[in-house]
Amino acid sequence: MKESHDDVILVEEIYELIDERAEGIKKAVIEEIRQKQDEDLRYINQRIDSLNQRIDSQGSQLNQRMDTIMQMLMDMNRQLVEIAKQK
Question: How far is residue 57's CA from residue 64's CA, in Å, rounded to a whole number?
């Protein structure tokens, strides 16, 4: 069976349509992946920001506790000096 010129052109056009459709699907999938990656990165950044805020808050609490302890030690030192002066 001999292929006609029209058959060859028709097959080529079908392949071109398939290639165009495949390219469109690839682009759509790549765009979807990029969007998901962007969403993931935003989520991760939010979690990191939240963690940083907690760390900052805990650091501030520790600084306040250290200040309180230092003040208590200075008060104790003053009291010891007063006791020593009385003897």
Answer: 11
Return the HEC string of the chain. CCCCHHHHHHHHHHHHHHHHHHHHHHHHHHHHHHHHHHHHHHHHHHHHHHHHHHHHHHHHHHHHHHHHHHHHHHHHHHHHHHHHHHC
Segment 21-71, tens digit of pLDDT = 999 999 999 999 999 999 999 999 999 999 999 999 999 999 999 999 999
* CA separation for the pair 29, 21 (Å, rounded): 12
For residue 70, give the amino acid letter.
M
Determine the straight-line distance between the first and last CA of the chain, rounded to whole angstroms.
126
